[in-house]
Amino acid sequence: MNTELLGIVATFLLTLLIAIPLGKYLAKVFAGEKVWTDFLNPLEAGIFKLSGIRPKEEMNWKQHLKALLTINMLWLVYGFFMLIYQDRLPLNPDGNPGMSADLSFNTIISFVVNCNLQHYSGESGVSYFSQHFILMFLQFVSCATGIAAAVVLFKAFRDRTTEKLGNFWNFFVKSITRLLLPLSIFMALILAFNGTTTSYEGKDQFISLEGDTVQVSRGPAAAFIAIKHLGTNGGGWFGANSTHPLENPNYVTNMVELIAQVIIPMAMVIAFGIFIRRRKLSWIIFSVMTIGMFLLLIPTISSELGGNPAIAKMGISQASGAMEGKEVRFGPAISAYWSTVTTIISTGSVNSMHDSTMPLTGVWLLLGMMVNSFFGGCGVGILNYFVYLIIAVFISGLMVGRTPEFLGHKLEAREVKIAAIITLLSPLLILGGTALSAYTFMHYGQANWTVQPQHWLNNTGFHGFSEMLYEMTSSNANNGSGFEGLADNNMFWNVATGIVLMFGRFLPIIGPIAIAGLLAKKKYIPETAGTLRTDTLTFGIMTLAVIVVLNALSYFPVLALGPLAEYFTMIK
Amino acid sequence: MIEEFHIANVTQIINYHITMKKYLVQSIRLTLVLTVLLSIIYPLGIALMGKLSKGNGEGEKVYKNGRVVGYALIGQSFKKPEYFWGRPSAVGYNAAGSAGSNKGPSNTEYLKEVSNRIDTLLKYNPSLDRTAIPADMVTASGSGLDPDISVQGAKIQIKRIAAYRNIEEKKIAELVTLHTKGPLLGLFGPSTINVLRLNLALDEIK
Fold it and tell me: CB of B66 within 8 Å of any CB in chain A?
């Protein structure tokens, strides 16, 4: 086996090696059991005291959602103004300007919702103050929001019948102090000692070997890049994200960044099973997610290693694979692995440019984001999967003619309706958004806007359509990667994706928590021989089938118009 | 009866407002506390530790005769025939505005650009067979700042450089081997060559 493929195997195995014990640890932390990090208790007690929070106060599901939404809205409002006025705030050595209102609207939503779609470029679009006090802060807290929301769901199924689902602030703060901050410190130091900059010095200037004057953007990036991956955020310090040599200096950092973005979503699945004392269920979920991951990963790798057929026709050897938009120090194989991981997990950071990947790769990346629950983002991945579970239970119930039950609670019309609405939301936002933008592009191409719609696209034809589709899909999945050729920093895209981002984040959090809260209140029905068990292999396959069928039905036509059409025109 | 209902309703509304206000105040205070922890203490701590790293956390610089000629990790533009060339860059190696080309694989303009790059390579390396050209030498990197090229990318330039510099080919080939960084632990990932370091070593040969 060649060294590039071996790199993938090693990365994946290391990920498992870290994620599984981490899951066990997380289950204990959130259950309030003794763990070795309990020496942090005084720190947490201090945070609660200063914030006027009583962490033992129990909340029901509605109170959880109120707390979650209140603090998220607060971040939206103050962050919006900070970004607009960043030029008047300190820590701006490069003298970058304040954001326009529409760009700030998009950016703040994007970071609050854990997406990190970036319509600005890190070097010239934000000050160090904004990077640290707004963006990096949000990378921590948006991830913690997702984890806390998932723990509420865990709580709902731990006890037989309950309305008390723990304290939101407690879950939220512990996600940071017991998980995100310690891991970030560790990872930031690895990055720093491999060459990522940490100092607050601004741009430097030097004269190159051939006599060109070159300016170099730098800054305290290591701290930011650590949480960017651990929190499945994905927003880069520099414009080119993790392709940038200072953001991702070598193969070691590349492995670390790859592992970091997967461990928490994986660990959450393990933690779920331990927390609700149904380990088998979480292993079934884990298997389905892993199979889903490989179903997307293998064709992606094969499509990238095959290289660009149009360049092959010119007689060029693409020994290692397609190289446009990729870095030599990583190579196409691990870049393809990264592309898969960053789209199934809603990270959205890139170590190669997705716009330049092969057409079929585009199909797999888009599908990863459309499904959005093969591990998925921190906390929210398992919430998304939960919705598919409910649908699968409902459909199986109909098939065998029994009242559907999930973990001892009857599933009734109200819960199924919520699940159905959440499932339909994604196609509505993705297809509706793409249709709107394609219509605007075609019919208002000459509209008198700052950027005329006819100049949006960096590529013509089918690939251009894919650029718009990818942007909407990425926004709905709260992913944040892009076909970056799209001219997205203008009123239309800033506002349109901003709205998609909001709906794509908060409804898929509210829905599953409501379902879980409603189920937890219901009377517990002991399992009998007649119960449809959800922790069996058969049911795992059923869930996978539901995921495949739902997404294929929703998205096949639009994929056919974009990347599939491009593929077939290229090989003819 | 009606009055009772009314009172119950009002209490509910008041309770609702009290909860919301409580959550808002808690949110504001928690945000302030966490800002101190996450946006001040954490990055300052990392910056402090970063001072111990190579380049003191400001990026590792590369010197020639005591003058800074670049950053070890940041690729720079090489156009002169007597230097090894790096990869094409969508931003002309502008280290204050990194980006890839974002050109799609079927874009005709892009494919023409690739074709032109091949022609340029063939023009400056007349003995070169086009099937020997590796993909990285004719495609733009993701960052526009790729500091490396593949081993094959360096090999195809040896003849040209030997001719322009009047140095034995063998000597340059040795230099290329010396500057080849193998896979991680000899096992994982591709081999690379840092173009800036290779070119600096080239200037050392007299």
Answer: no
